[in-house]
Design goal:
CATH superfamily of the domain at 1-70: Terminase, small subunit, N-terminal DNA-binding domain, HTH motif
Number of helices: 7
Strand order of the largest sheet: 1-2
Strand content: 15-25%
CATH class of the domain at 1-70: Mainly Alpha
Distance between the termini: 31 Å
Largest sheet: 2 strands, antiparallel
Order of helices and strands: HHHHHHEEHEEEE
Length: about 200
């Protein structure tokens, strides 16, 4: 029996792997790869249990990370810059917005945009520049902290309360994680189980 690591991917499987990396939704990736709407969820579930497909997804992720210098540490640093920004640091002692060249790298990374508008007194040829109106747009602090919590593994499993037809209530816990690197030994997956969003 051939080693699953050496199985060549079909065109649809390759397309599925690339589509899956967009938002890690298995069913959506299956549809984008050309599988039918009716079978998308089932195909996604099947594909994400195949070692050669999981290995390809891991390979593509590593290639992307290397190409764009994307590392877990760098992502955490950028999220932390947004989440822990102290807005007071971008103003001087008189409460005026500092020039962007005076911002630290952390402050500059947390600010999403800057608008500057000239303020004039008078009209037409008689108008005189009397000042500037500057507006800064901050990145979403709460979203950054939420993402950082998940990245660091501090988030608790999601809990869903379900009630059956006879009024019986129970709790269901689900944890969704992106697939990490897969390790093989003698043709067997030794990484351990992973929870992946199949879009079900």
């Amino acid at each position: 029996m051939a080693d699953e690591q050496e199985i060549k991917l079909t065109e649809k499987e390759e397309a599925f792997c690339n589509a899956y990396l967009i938002d890690f939704n298995g069913a959506k990736a299956a549809r984008m790869a050309g599988y039918s709407e009716a079978s998308a969820k089932e195909i996604a579930s099947q594909n994400l249990t195949k070692l050669h497909i999981r290995a390809r997804i891991t390979e593509l992720r590593q290639q992307m990370g290397k190409a764009y210098n994307v590392t877990r540490e760098r992502i955490a640093q950028e999220l932390a810059r947004i989440g822990f920004l102290d807005i007071r640091n971008v103003f001087d002692e008189q409460g005026r917005l500092k020039d962007p060249v005076e911002w630290s790298d952390d402050e500059a990374a947390a600010i999403a945009g800057l608008e500057s508008e000239n303020i004039f007194d008078g009209y037409g040829e008689d108008k005189t520049l009397i000042g500037y109106l500057k507006k800064i747009k901050l990145s979403d602090k709460r979203a950054a902290l939420d993402s950082l919590v998940k990245l660091m593994g501090y988030a608790a499993p999601e809990k869903h309360e379900l009630t059956g037809q006879m009024g019986i209530t129970w709790h269901e816990e689900r944890t969704y994680e992106q697939p990490g690197p897969t390790e093989f030994k003698d043709g067997k997956n030794i990484t351990g189980g992973e929870n992946i969003n199949t879009g079900l």
